[in-house]
Amino acid sequence: MNLPAWYVCAFGAGTILALLLIHRLLHRFVLQRRSLKGDLIGENGAYALREVGNVLAVFILGAAIVKNALRGADPKVDAIWCAAYGVLGLVLFELTSHLGLRFLLRGRLAASLERGNVAAGLAAASHYVAMGILTSRAVAGQDLRGLGLSVTFFALAVASQQLVLISFRALTTYDDAEQIDGENTAAALSYSGVSLAVALVIARALEGDFPGWELALKGFASLVACTAALYPLRQLIVQGVVLGARPALRGGALDLAIGRDRKLGIAALEAACYLGSALAFVSLA
Questions:
Q1: pLDDT band at residue 143 under the 50/70/90 scheme
Q2: Which of 68, 108, 145, 169 is most open to solvent, judged by the fewest CB atoms within 10 Å of its CB?
Q3: DSSP labels for 88-155?
Q4: Domain that includes residue 152, residue range
Q5: Contact by Cβ (8 Å): 115, 42
Q6: For the chain, what is the domain count?
Q7: Taking a C-beta distance cutoff of 8 angstroms, is the pair 139, 207 a contact?
Q8: What is the SS3 assignment for 174?
């Protein structure tokens, strides 16, 4: 059913504004964080970057909730389901983001942010956006069965994303956590690119109707497995074709440029190639 643009926009604006308000209150009074305004206008750029990623994730989540929940038959019913999925989505997003950040940089993220480490702020921002992407695809539907499926597949998506990232970054010759904690913004850019790319691919695995557990899990696993293509893309295409360096199965000029020389341009190019490949995959798959 094609709904009027004004109807969708009205629900979209209302849902996003409500989520932003709840998000702000939650961080201020429940998580006992500094105020959003204080982080954005303060002198600590790391906190500002973190909150920018946080807010962007809420926008992504709100738009997806409205797109999937609206049916147009009854505004009251649409409002109820937008509210239900909005609360569920925000709770899942905040919970997984908060827990994930505790493990980022092996538990050193809080101290790194406190001292104004912009690289850590960038890594935190990308983590928030990645979680927002996953949550936005998992939280979809307009019934109680859909709510249960949303929670189950969201848990699978988050676990898969973390496992893929751990496996992928273990193949680099430099330690992401040490480099980012050491204020290597190039390493943070590289990490952010692969984190968002993996989230986009796994989010694609969450789309579509539920055909039954066996088919759904097989389809999910097959799409998650496609993230393995990012590593040969990095080592062979980015390093060999784009940069003109000697391709290598592990290490090489790309690792040296980021881990040792901290080349922002090369890291940005690497991240762009990850994102470009993920967006192409999502469009074609």
A1: low
A2: 145
A3: HHHHHHHHHHHHHHHHGGGGTHHHHHHTT-HHHHHHHHHHHHHHHHHHHHHS--SSHHHHHHHHHHHH
A4: 5-284
A5: no
A6: 1
A7: no
A8: coil
At position 214, the amino acid (one-letter code) is E
Q: Please tell me the distance from the alpha carbon of residue 104 to that of residue 147, in angstroms, as a whole number.
A: 29
pLDDT of residue 114: 86
The candidate with the shortest Cα–Cα distance to 194, out of 128, 113, 277, is 277
Which amino acid is residue 243, in one-letter code? L
Nearest Cα to 233, choosing from 184, 171, 179? 171
Instruction: Look at the block and give the residue holding tokens 């060999």.
Output: 240
Contact predicate 227/198, CB 8 Å: yes
Alpha-carbon distances of 248 from 93, 227, 233, rounded to whole Å = 37, 19, 11
Tokens of 65: 């909730």
Tokens of 211: 């055909």
Distance, CA of 164 to CA of 202 (rounded, Å): 10
DSSP track, 144-155: HHHHHHHHHHHH
